[in-house]
Design a protein that fits this description.
The structure holds two protein chains of two kinds.
Chain A: H1 2-12, H2 35-49, H3 66-76
Helix pairs in contact in A: 1-2
Chain B: H1 6-22, E1 24-33, H2 34-44, H3 46-52, H4 55-60, H5 65-86, E2 98-102, E3 108-112, H6 114-122, E4 125-135, E5 138-147
Antiparallel strand pairs in B: 1-5, 2-3, 4-5
The chains are: A mainly alpha, B alpha+beta.
Amino acid sequence: MDEEIRRVLAAHGRLPVDAAGVGDGDDLFQLGLSSHASVNVMLALEDAFGIEFPEPMLRKSTFESVAAIHRALAQLLPTPAQS
Amino acid sequence: MSRRQPPFEAAALEATVRAAVGARCAVGIDLVDIDEVQRSIETLGDAYLDRLFTEHERASCTGSARARAASFAARFAAKEAALKVLAPSGPRPEWRSIEVVRLPHGACELHLHGTAAALADAGGLSGFSVSLTHEAGYAAAVVVAALAQGGGARPDGGR
């Protein structure tokens, strides 16, 4: 799952650093993730994993790190995710 | 302008003046790269437009691909600027609950729905006003709202 998250970050996050080298707990907003880019990441994650982030999960902290995105996806996917 | 009975007109004027000079205000601003929005429209298409913008907003953004991207970028900036005014301590309201309504003569108003409207009520915020602009590669928006006396329950002071 984390590999797919990093692929989405690389394609849609417009980070000034290589998404492959981002640590699980690194703060993506501090790395340069803009609010607009975070929306793109959210939509691309929804497409990649076939889920939709509900309004209660629309908070900055949901997308602040690879680990946070992993936790959010794990709540939304029908079966426990293996990373 | 229609004629009204003097007492009503005086009361309306008083309310307007009080709103203009007596109210505390909350302000939010946001800046968006138009290229990024154009790229999002090209790569994510309707999933992007349908999730972020209301039917009215989509109908308001017309013209060339570049012109549409600039208009959508300004509207996205307005939603983010409004979010800074609303300053939710929990989840943010979904994007379509903050709507830029284009009036027939071209000026724009900000309309809040659902969770966004509830946040405004809870925070004592009213009289929202929005201004949009785009120039060169960027679109920007400023949102202002009146903060009721005794309001300001927003936990971070409305940064």
